[in-house]
Specification:
Elements lengths: L25 E8 L5 E5 L6 E6 L9 E4 L7 H4 L7 E2 L5 E5 L9 E15 L2 E2 L2 E6 L16 H13 L10 E8 H19 L2
Parallel strand pairs: 5-8, 6-9
Antiparallel strand pairs: 1-4, 1-7, 2-3, 4-6, 7-8, 7-9, 7-10
């Protein structure tokens, strides 16, 4: 590796990693938590390091790899796809990644192929969960749309996102507006790129 290609300092996972030349179909994903993590980790937006957000409060645990898409943002253009909310949640787009073989560590990046998404409404704000498969995974070769994935996997993700912040006896904050396929997911990712550019590159 030549000196000019060597990165001396670690890039910020949200702002410093390129989303990829094939976006919105194939994107970089930065993984914050792995399947069945009992602690909810996420990046500290200021430093870019992984931090403990909270313990998973109840028995609902993430069923898949979960992280963010670098250089995306949920704001006006992203929220425009929703019929139930007018604001994005002000975070990078979340992404759920399917891999046949278990991946047991987070704080990693990977190339993933976008196949669909879940439009989650969290306390009245749009909080899309893009769904993707690990690019190059032979088990998912030829899978290009959420319709090709077992409904059991989608139901597990739906259950997790509907319940992971729910506290017994308190009002339910989470609603699923829709589950959508690859073509709409590409548009949502592209909107997230445009929202990021509008808010961070002007």
């Amino acid at each position: 590796m030549s000196k000019k290609n060597f990165q001396v300092s670690r890039p910020h996972p949200w702002h410093g990693i390129n989303i990829g030349a094939e976006a919105p179909k194939v994107v970089k994903a930065y993984i914050e938590i792995v399947a069945n993590d009992q602690i909810k980790y996420e990046i500290d937006k200021e430093s870019g390091f992984i931090m403990v957000d909270r313990p998973q409060k109840f028995s609902s645990l993430p069923p898949v790899l979960y992280g963010l898409i670098p250089q995306t943002y949920s704001a006006e253009k992203t929220a425009a796809f929703s019929k139930m909310a007018t604001n994005g949640d002000g975070d990078p787009h979340d992404i759920c990644v399917l891999s046949e073989l278990p991946i047991h560590r987070a704080d990693i990046i990977m190339d993933v192929r976008v196949i669909g998404g879940i439009r989650l409404i969290d306390s009245g704000e749009v909080d899309d969960k893009i769904i993707a498969v690990l690019n190059g995974d032979p088990f998912y070769k030829g899978v290009n749309d959420i319709s090709q994935i077992s409904a059991v996997i989608i139901d597990r993700m739906r259950h997790y996102f509907l319940s992971y912040k729910t506290i017994p006896g308190e009002p339910i904050k989470m609603q699923i507006e829709s589950i959508y396929g690859a073509e709409e997911a590409y548009k949502v990712v592209q909107a997230g790129i445009e929202d990021y550019n509008n808010h961070f590159k002007k």
